[in-house]
Amino acid sequence: MAETSELERDLQVLESELRKLEGEYNMYFAGRLPRPPWESRSRVEGLVKRLDRSYIQNYGDRFRFSTLQARFATFIDLWDRGLRAREEGRSGPFGKRPAETARTQPGPEDRIVHVAAFQDPMKEMDKLHELYGRVEDTRRELGEEAIPFHKFAQLIKEQVTRLRQSGAPEVAFRVAVKDGKVSFTARGLKGAKPGSAE
Q1: DSSP letter string over 130-152?
Q2: Most buried residue, 9, 67, 100, 116, by CB count within 10 Å?
Q3: What helix, strand, coil percent values describe the chain, rounded to 5?
Q4: 3-class secondary structure, 81
């Protein structure tokens, strides 16, 4: 029984560390962190490897771990493509580089506010509420009208269903400020499959 609770603790730690790492990468690509969060990434990677080597007897725990592991692999792919694009001077999955946006017109600065990926939004309510909060904060900041949460949730659900039907296991939503307006886009993530589009 003690073993199960230790595993449960490890899975909770992995979940919260992965959420934290996602936030740090969002801050880095938005230009609010000077360098990528390598330490946090190594910590999560170590935890994933340790859990992968351990024997997980309970099917539910095994499934939960596999889901987190797949999500981590998907994010690694997305982040690495973003870093590669930035090094090559291209706009990758995270859009313009902060140095370029600073030179555009004055007014609200073009920036990426938040990125979140979903497999099933109805089972990921924490992330859905966080995404909604970031969209609403940005709309308020730019003087745009609020959207009711139920309409927003329905939109996310429809987009995820549509993109998953076209073969994407996970769907990433990006909230950005572009030309003084809120830009909200969805794209299917291909995970770590070779030859994925981008």
Answers
A1: HHHHHHHHHHHHTTPPP--HHHH
A2: 116
A3: 60, 15, 25
A4: helix
Residue 177: how many other CB atoms lie within 10 Å: 20
- DSSP 8-class letter at 92: B
* SS3 assignment, position 55: coil
Q: Could you write out the DSSP letters of every residue in 180-193? A: TEEEEEEEEE-TT-
Alpha-carbon distances, residue 36 vs 80, 89, 114, 115, 193 (angstroms): 10, 16, 16, 15, 23
Supply φ then ψ for residue 190, to 5 degrees. Answer: -90, 0
pLDDT of residue 4: 53
pTM value > 0.90: no
Phi, psi of 148 (to 5 degrees): -60, 145
Exposure string over 56-79, b if 16+ CB within 10 A, otherwise e: beeeebeebbeebbebbebbbbbb
pLDDT at 16 over 90: yes
CA distances (Å), origin 50, targets 16, 64, 65, 67: 16, 15, 11, 16
Pairs from 44-47 (Cβ < 8 Å, separation ≥ 24): 44/14, 44/17, 44/18, 44/72, 45/72, 47/10, 47/13, 47/14, 47/17
Q: Are 121 and 156 in contact (CB under 8 A)?
A: yes
Of 190 and 28, the structure prediction assigns the larger pLDDT to 28
